[in-house]
Amino acid sequence: MHTVTLTKGVPDFREGQVSFDEDGHLERGNTPTVMNPNDKHALRTALQTKVRHGGRLSVMSMGPPGYGDVLGEAMESVYADELYLLSDRELAASDTWATAITIATGLQKLDETPDLVFAGFKTADGETGHTGPQACWCLDWPIITHVIALDVDEDEGTVRAKRLVEGDIEEIETVEAPIPAFVVADPEFEPTYRTAGDRLTLKDLRAETKERAKNHEEHMTTWDHADLNLDPDYIGLDGSPTIVSSVDPIPKAPAEREATMVDPGDEAGMSEVFDAMAAHAGGEQ
């Protein structure tokens, strides 16, 4: 099997230093970035699939060159074999539609059509949940969303999943789709490794990938819009029908605690620290 997981870098809102240009577009290259938290559900789903069925696992992202670090983190999380970064100034300021066109084209450029593509639930910056389904629409593949359990019948060429109906944890249905297909994991998804063989495979993959992830750049392919044969009129800002009317700044959370600096060589000061810690621990020195 060949599976692909989509991931994305999002602003680290904890830093309170999100950068926008004069037109209200996020300047991702000037903003502290972390992996989108909801992509970790997709990564866990992909890892379970690799452990149970083997094959190649790739991770793909679109963004500035700094997203290579996000892909490196994903490689170590999901024990990926290869990474793909779609990166180019022409792709900047893409909305979900322009992003979906780019990602779908990247998936088509792979040397082997993926059996499954795993997409995140939604991103922490846009909160739309559009990109995975829109990329799937571009490829005219089936899609299963809100997935909480998954298995693949390779002989039949199908994927069977349990999913939440309209995201309701009280109503679950079982659905089946032919592959290739897109899968969007729900935050309720919990991977299961039912056999000793699965758990041994997981252990082996962890050891193997730990070394590979140290030099993840050697396993990363970068494609720009020319490599993908994309018309600049249909990607980036020009290809994005979404119009940003306004942007409210994200304030940095105020510090609510005062800190007292104590030099470790200050015996009296350190004694006060230990006394305070002992009181909170409920013990005595």
TrEMBL record:
<feature type="domain" description="Electron transfer flavoprotein alpha/beta-subunit N-terminal">
    <location>
        <begin position="23"/>
        <end position="209"/>
    </location>
</feature>
<dbReference type="InterPro" id="IPR014730">
    <property type="entry name" value="ETF_a/b_N"/>
</dbReference>
<protein>
    <submittedName>
        <fullName>Electron transfer flavoprotein subunit alpha/beta</fullName>
    </submittedName>
</protein>
<dbReference type="InterPro" id="IPR014729">
    <property type="entry name" value="Rossmann-like_a/b/a_fold"/>
</dbReference>
<dbReference type="Pfam" id="PF01012">
    <property type="entry name" value="ETF"/>
</dbReference>
<dbReference type="InterPro" id="IPR012255">
    <property type="entry name" value="ETF_b"/>
</dbReference>
<dbReference type="GO" id="GO:0009055">
    <property type="term" value="F:electron transfer activity"/>
</dbReference>
